[in-house]
Amino acid sequence: LPAELLLELQTFLSYASRVALRCTCRDLYNKVEHPTTSSLSNTRAYGMIDLLEIERWPEYHGVEYVSVENKQALDRRDFFACCLCLRIRSAGQFSNAMMRGKRGKLGNGTIADRIGRFCLTCGVTSRRYPLGTRLQFGGASQRQGLVCVTCGRFDQ
Q1: CA pair distance 2, 10, nearest whole angstrom
Q2: Do residues 116 and 80 lie in contact, with contact meaning Cβ atoms separated by under 8 Å?
Q3: Are 94 and 120 in contact (CB under 8 A)?
Q4: Where are the domains of the chain?
Q5: Calpha distance 39→125 (Å, rounded)
Q6: What span, in angstroms and rounded, lies between the C-alpha atoms of 130 and 71?
Q7: Which InterPro entries match (predicted)?
Q8: CB of 67 within 8 A of CB of 135?
Q9: What is the pLDDT of residues 6-50, one digit of tens each?
Q10: How many CB atoms lie within 10 A of CB 142?
Q11: C-alpha dist (Å) from residue 122 to 61, 64, 76, 87
Q12: Mean pLDDT of all residues in the chain?
């Protein structure tokens, strides 16, 4: 493609689509602008909506579910986006409540429901879990942990 046409096409692409286009071949990787943080501001070039799109890519969504009814993810095969740290993390980093139902990828919830999903680390750090809360996490491995009453850390 001519450089002018490629430059024009990029303006219509979302962050996730631009990243995907760059990953298709070496030539496009070098020609398509990298969607990075702007040097003029401290804002990121992507948001939770972009991460929700990326988490459904086959690389991050290639999972076999233990039961279709619960849509319970296996620990290290599925990935989810966190709205607080804006990272894609493995299923083992999320409480089971954050991965199923309306907040899960395959649930019947809206995007507004999934936008509020956060990982265990961010949930504990931002004190979204009260002290003494017992959480199941890790998907199908059904591990349990507790937010410590004294120090406020998450202990497995």
Answers
A1: 13
A2: no
A3: yes
A4: 1-45, 47-155
A5: 28
A6: 26
A7: F-box-like_dom_sf
A8: no
A9: 888 888 888 888 888 888 888 888 888 777 644 445 566 788 888
A10: 12
A11: 22, 26, 19, 11
A12: 80
Residue in the structure block whose two tokens are 């349990």: 144
Going through the chain in order, the beta strands assigned E by DSSP cover 79-81, 88-90, 134-137, 143-147, 154-155
Burial of 3 from C-beta contacts in 10 A (0-12 / 13-18 / 19+): exposed
Nearest residue to 46 (alpha-carbon basis) of 34, 58, 57: 34
Report how far residue 91's alpha carbon sits from residue 73's, in angstroms, rounded to the nearest whole number.
Answer: 7
Burial 36-73 (b: 16+ CB within 10 A, else e): eeeeeeeeeebebebbbbbbeeeebbebebeeeeebbb
What is the distance between the alpha carbons of residues 129 and 144, in angstroms, rounded to a whole number?
14
User: Rounded to whole angstroms, how far apart are CA atoms 65 and 67?
Assistant: 5
pTM, whole model, 2 decimals? 0.74
**What tokens does 13 get?**
């692409």
